[in-house]
Structure prediction request, 615 residues.
Amino acid sequence: MSAVSPSALLVTSSIQLQTEALSRTYPSGDGQITALRPFSHTFAAGMTSVVGPSGSGKSTLLNLLAGFDTPSSGAVRVGDTDIHSLSEAGRADFRLKHYGFVFQSHNLVAILSAQENVEFPLMLAGVPPRERRERARALLSQVGLEGRTHHLPSHLSGGEAQRVAIARALVGNPAVLLADEPTGNLDTRSGEIILELLTRPAREGKTVVLITHDADVAALADHHLRVRDGEVTVER
Amino acid sequence: MWILARRGLTRRPIRTLLTTLGIVVAVASMVIFLSLGEGIRKVFNDELGGIGPDVQVSLSGFTQGFAPQPNLPQSTVGDIEKLAPELGITRVTPVIMSVRGSLDPSQSAVLYGLPAEQGINAVFSNVAIAQGRLLRAGDSGVAVVGAKASTNLKLSLGSTLRLNRRSAVKVVGILAKSGGLNDSFIFMPLVTMQAAEGAQNRVSMVAVKLDDPKAARRVADQLAKTLNLEAQTQGDFLSFADRALKISDAVRFGISLISLIVGGLAVTNTVMMGVFERTREFGTLRAIGARPGFVRELVLTESLLLSLVGGVGGLLLGLVGIWGVNLYTQNLAGFDAAALTPRLTLLALVISLLLGLIAGLLPARSASRLSINEALGRV
Prediction:
């Protein structure tokens, strides 16, 4: 069980996400492949889109921001914490407390109902059952799924499942929300609903990083980054 | 955690059921095998006080097993009687024993000769007659048969029992069922059995009764030293039997270990398959904040849950098996050879859980060490 204080999840926080000369190279034969060139940036509150073609380094950037992968050099700071200086368990706790994730595929736990999926991060944080039930129901209601709380992911449409994933990402009230092609697998209408749900936390002052290859989706963001051949540039 | 583990197992119900059945059978076979030792131990502990002499003197102790050869001179009786006042001996009974074996276990019996004038109660205080009469002074060529021996060998009052080609005895009494080992005994006068065995003036052992049974150890040591023979107490017999049972336990446990190992491998396989199938799910759990330890505990819990259910099922199936074994041995010898004791129940559950723990270690380690990137298919 995680040692994260339950109350820590319930306080709206606004913490700055920064990269400092963040880079990633992979060994390849005798040489190295540069997946991400040194990149320093402060993510402003609101939604930042990261666009670029396939293989440009978008996912590498998100993996490093999330602490899924270890940088070759540089740092990712959330507030005063360099997340890569933390232990594996420490990084897990940090993600639980400060991050929310929305993936291209909803990635819900197949054996848990919609409500149980949303409750899961709170369970990890040790929030009492009654409180986490109430918070999960409230979040599911906010994403328009109050009538689907007990459905398994297999009984939900792709759009509904992605809305559950957004509720799960937001239930811990994270400062940073990382979304990787969240509308990639959805039809236009469902995609619009998901984007609307993602812009809400951005408007509330959270840092939302949205990775997409769709220019129309990227246009909804407040700030824009473009990645090409591992080089990240800020677009005005 | 328990809910996740339970649902994790039930998502592939047939595979889980088959694995559980594997453990059920492995634990049940262990329970049945080990229950045989427990049952026999129980019979010895419950009955020896009522059936055995305080001290028994023989030429070579228990090395010849339960029924020693008649190779002890009968003059030993006189030697012991001389020491009787000094050692507090109240009765000295020469005994000759022989096991009447057969390929069919139900046709086996223990032939037990003792002086007719002393009677069966001289050694077996708990026997009672059901039909006919007990042995009495002057008897020769007669036998009193235990309840089970009477049924198995189809002996009734007046029947003739052939001991060998030259000798036969007539059944004059049938004992009431005692539920003990002596239900399979056939008692006859010492002289009759000595003649049948061709062992005139020789006995298997001399049974000694004391006025103070607590002095048995001291008296046995004194007799052994003075007569230069082996002298054992009931405690010696119990510890001898216990040693023999422990060796037998170890052999039987060794045999059941094979099925336990197979059961354990089945658990490892099932849990490992579950881990492979849920790689993405574990990656997601880790991504949203589960520590590696959480994933490790989750997989171990599944493995333990599987083994615990298998262990309880194995105990229940074992109980059925024990019932079957006892039905057979009751029919054969009149006592329950198998017993499910609290310590065997505990052992079966502990072994099941240990099995789950060991079987789950490798899958749990694999699951907790998954790279989030790889698990989520992000590389």
Summary: The helical segments of chain A are 58-66, 88-98, 114-124, 129-142, 158-170, 188-203, 215-218. Confidence is low (pLDDT under 50) at residues 6-12 of chain A. Chain A has one domain: 15-235.
